[in-house]
Amino acid sequence: MPQVSFDALVSALLEGTHLASFPTDTVPALAARPDRADLIFQAKQRSAEKPLILMAGAIADLWQYVTGSEAELKIWQQMAETYLPGALTLVLPASDRVPVTMHPSDPTTIGVRVPNGAIAQAILAQTGALATTSANRSGQPALLTMSGIQAQFPNVLTLSSDEFPDLDAAVSGTPSTVVKWSNPNWHILRQGAVQITLP
Description:
Elements: E1 3-4, H1 6-15, E2 20-22, E3 29-32, H2 38-44, E4 53-55, H3 70-83, E5 88-93, E6 109-113, H4 118-127, E7 130-134, H5 146-152, E8 158-159, E9 177-182, E10 185-190
Parallel strand pairs: 1-8, 4-6, 5-9
Antiparallel strand pairs: 2-3, 3-7, 4-7, 5-6, 9-10
Domain YrdC-like: 3-194
Protein name: L-threonylcarbamoyladenylate synthase
EC number: 2.7.7.87
């Protein structure tokens, strides 16, 4: 896997020419520009039935990708402001700004998240929201180290270990909790790093 500088990794993501991997607060992300999400499906050998997550550097960057009533938006914002940045993914109705390639089998919903990690937030602040998923072949455990990702995905860009010597340190290894909005309630799809008890 080519190790590159921060600026080179950001440029490649913006150009849509490469996949990149970087640490988050849960597991390392495999990321691409949203309209090039097909690169992720190909690299992971992932079924189109399995959606990707739209990851952003700030909560405010997410709302253009979802659509709902004013009352719903208020509820979503409250949940986001309580748990994000952090290890929570919200599955919400998708707006027409979300490329169909993000979730080919059901483009009506989109999972959104803001990671609580300095490196991930710095990248996302430069690139805008990215299509992301865990860095592993579909059906296999998430890879937790840059060296493991290098071995399995030799063409994916990662940050230079000279520039960022502690890339593996921030990774908890526990995936995000996933909650889905089904008006008028939230439903837990996966209990992960954030423990949520819903009424």
